Amino acid sequence: MKKVLVLAVFALATAVMYAGGYRVSLQGQKSLAMGHTGVAVINSSELVFFNPAGLVHLENKLNISAGVSGVFANVAYQNEATGAYAETDNSTSTPLYLYASYKATDWLAFGLGVYTPYGSSVTYEDDWAGSHLVNNIELAAIFVQPTVSFKIGEYLSFGGGPIFVTGSVNFNRNLNRTLTDLEGNRSNVTIDATGINEWGWTVGAMFTPTKELTVGANYRSKIDMNVEDGDATFENIPNSPLTPFEDTTFDASLPLPAEITVGLSYQFCEKWLFAFDVNRTFWDVYESLDIDFANENIPDSKNARNYKNASTYRFGLQYDATKMFTLRAGYYFDESPVQDGYFAPETPRNDSNGYTAGFTVNVGEHFEVDASFLYLHFKEVDASYDYYFENGQAAPFGGTYKNSVFVPGLGVTYKM
Amino acid sequence: MKNTIKICLGLLAIGFVSCEPEFDNPVTNDGFYTSGSANVTNYVAVGNSLTAGYADGALYITGQENSYPNIMAQQFAKAGGGEFTQPLMNDNIGGLLLNGTQVFENRFVLAVGASGNPSPVRLIGTPTTEVTTSATGPFNNMGVPGAKSFHLNAAGYGAANPWFARFQTSSSASVIGDAASMNPTFFSLWIGNNDILSYATSGGIGVDQTGNFDPTSYGSNDITDPLVFAGAYSAQVDALMASSTGGVLVNIPDVTSIPYFTTVPAQSIPLDAATAGAINAQFALYNSQVLPGLVGAGIISAEEAAARQINFSAGVNFPIMSDDDLTNVSAILQGPPFNLPAAVAGLLGQLRQANDNDLVVLTASSVLGTTPDPTNPTGVIGVSIPLGDQYVLTAVEQGRVSAAVTAYNATIKALADANDLAFVDARAALAQVASTGVAFDAGVLTSAFVTGGAFSLDGVHPTPRGYAYTANLMITAINRKYDATIPLVNIGNYATVTLSNN
Fold it and tell me: What is the pTM of this model?
């Protein structure tokens, strides 16, 4: 088990870009196929993430689910006034998850989860039109969550546990729009930090008044990823005392916001299950991305973000077609936390519609193969980031953005 | 199970093929931008150092990459423009070698000296661009630093100008001939600046050749006769028009608003009351006896005598200077009744004090107030030694420049109209940069030296940002004339002066 976990953690280090802000909703193939609903769906150990209170309701003694998604996410940018055009060249990322639950008694279950709900990976061509804001960025945060779940009475259960987060960040941008060395190479900075470790927690509740109806709620705490003494590396700096840039360390903090999910599922006509979730993510904690360089001669980098709280509305359907096949489909509407004028190209996010589908193949008594597919549709949007300053004067960076996200995913479930 | 794998692979395949985000109206689509009635597939730029991308007192790669023709060509490429070739230098040091000997200096960079103040200095380094082994032309960018209007038509001009020798197609080639041999579908022509610029930057030590129609008799710092200019210019337009669907002509700015003439104040000699009084005492006889005597003898007018009065006071003073438009009284002063010694008479020969109408050139800052003879601490330039004629462009000299520019510009405008070509009023544009500045997304582009953003460290040639602004002026004129939709560039994305300590 330990070996598997280490392997999974290693593979998760490549994270993905998309979902509101840098939130990445890919925490289970079964749930994802149903519009990433799950706070009130009792069907697998994916509940470790979606609502730990439900684990105690699982029929089997042991449930293990693991999965991987292939994320094909790209961003295109253009500016009609200047003719500038850029496309991201993101490598395909493959976020994974692993959940296990063990039912100790009729009223008590334990679980463990490893998953990546936050991440961002965007790679533009170096020195593109917005290179003073970002050339490339990679954020990864791996959550490890031991979980307990217990029943109180016939209808009510609770669950939760601490969350250990280990994260990393690598971010490169040009220092400004014009500074170069003598050979014309643009001056840039890379900040890099790994092994950022923090703690958080989650708690959930589930109410099952009838066999058909389940109501659930889950809360995940805010976690501040605090970077101390990360490495800041400056490149192509002119040889001049007028440019005080030299390699140094930096401190920074990035919040992984709290979120609450409430929802219900209703089983109708025997074989059909309908699920509805509402997520509310408290993005307003992300006011600014500030990089505080240790070298006092180097001006600190302040980047207003001013995110607003955002909701996601999720709908899912499950149909037990045959003994062997379970089919799923879903839809969600994902509000962007980005406000007008704060549209930064490192997470160029506007509202999106997610269309999902998937199925499970029951292979024998203990083994299931889960597949899902997500297409996230964004309207193209004219947007700008207005809080970049040169000598105290704002130099807005704007244009038209279009995102595309396709995510096929595969998972396996073992139960005993 | 097999089927499952197939389905999953199928899903993955969908992911691969349909991943690229597509705009409803991508700017990369053919036809999004158009060049209107002009055809910009083969654009050829003809001109002088401004066209070559010269900056910071030199030609070097990044400067050339930011030449206005190259910036324009990159925007043309979005509207059907083709490849644009330039005779790129070998390095970013600047400087040029002729048979191994350096014939042009390295570029300026902004360096912080021992005093802690940033100032332009020549970059130290050995240039590697050799005239004799440079690539052969012709190139799309036919900008030749130093070229005057009539030079472009001269066969064998490469013998006189190593910049052209670098990429001439043969030793008997002319610039305009090589340019025309490219069969341009579109051209820009910006020439004539040097026909007055070298006169101006040399403080007017050359000759105004207006009335002299033989350019072979001109010196390098002379002002070209306007008819000579008109003849050369109209031949160039004809040569370029032969294959082109259109072009853009650019007029000559008023050079006296560039930082080379506006950075060093005319009033530059700080004196305390005691020193001022002592100097005035030395000029007392000159003011009260010599000048009235010259007027009395009918040698100079009363007005000239008044202009030649020397008066220092406590505070910042105008330097004394030598003005070659004054009557030279040196010989007269050596004879009776003045009988002055030759040295004193020489000092007073064309002496006056500078005034508010004079423009002191940038290079004067390194001589003003200095003592050229260390054994004589009282010999201070501007106080007891007149500032040389080459350091001051006087009002009279400015008038000659202005008259010539006015005549040239009338020719350029008339030819643009006659040939239905796009026209850029660079004179008005530079005047705006110099007076109010030009706003861009994060500031104002002005002609203040070093800090204004428009002019490079030689005080004459633009920075990349200044060239980008020039390119926008051209594109705007082209869009208007040819009903084109070529996009402008954001000048805030272009660099200003380069920082570097040797």
Answer: 0.92
